[in-house]
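Reference record
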Amino acid sequence: MMNYKNILAINFGGIGDEIFFLPTLISLKKEFPNSKITLALEPRSKSVKDLTDIIDEVFPVDIKGKNKYTELLKLVFFARRNKFDIVISSGGNKFISILLWLTGVKKRYGYDTGALSRKLLTQAVRLNKNQYACAMYHDLITPLTNHKTELPEVNINPKPKLPDTILIHPGVSKMSVQKGCIKTISAEVWAETIDLLIEKGKKVILAGGPDDNECIETILNTIKYKNSEKFENYYGKTRSMKDLGELISQAEKFLCSDSAPLHVAVALKTKTYAIFGPTDDKKLIPISENVIAVKANDNCPLKPCLWEKRLTTCTNLDCLKISPEEIVEIVLK
């Protein structure tokens, strides 16, 4: 096996997708410990570098902007200029194999999307979407290494646990909401859940990111125990994903939506409960007693539908009709 020195990885998506991709990069670093790893990603996800020392450099590519093809050409020129030994891409689009070929990198690895990918790539790897996302991405490097990293690992030093605390992060990305992808319960249900947990004797810490302002405001205007010593509003106090990770590490339990903080909690091995509705928990969380999917007991025949059968959520959202009582019962079990 060659001792690759300069590796380019390409993974477009949100911050959650980049966290899913970390085990792949970690295994590459184990195989090639002296290598430099550059990750090409969307600008919205560049904060993943704050979570890990595995990534030496990030190269933002704004594929969601108006100048998508100009951005991709910039990536091609960047790859050619830096003379990478190997390039790996997670994209499932048929165009990806052409993009990798244009980079001029001799060793090219991606998913098998047809005859063209098998011709242009050094090795086209079978894409198996019916598994945990970390494992799906990790399949890309099976031709390169026998190392297997199962879960994300983040560069956060866990802090001592605060007894009887439940950290709640209710939000999902604003981009998801704008696209019509509703993946969590309403702010009012979150507020009732907080009140019930406090009534059960738990201390609740509420956190959120920049996208969560409207949701947090509704929660604060709705909860009964806003001024209780059992409640702490931590919104606005975490300035980065790393700050949030440190807070997650302190909580005895973490209750959240299907969003990036969930994957940070998985990496930190904090006992986590995640609200799932239209998305597939089997692909988004590992099989573990440490991570529990909280789901409605509905009979929707299409569930999970989002990304599987449709690109937006339906108007009924029966899959998210979970009562505060049901949520609290699961969290306190």
About this structure: The first strand starts at residue 6 and ends at 10. DSSP finds twelve helices and twelve strands in the chain. The longest helix spans residues 15-31. The chain has two domains: 6-141, 162-332.
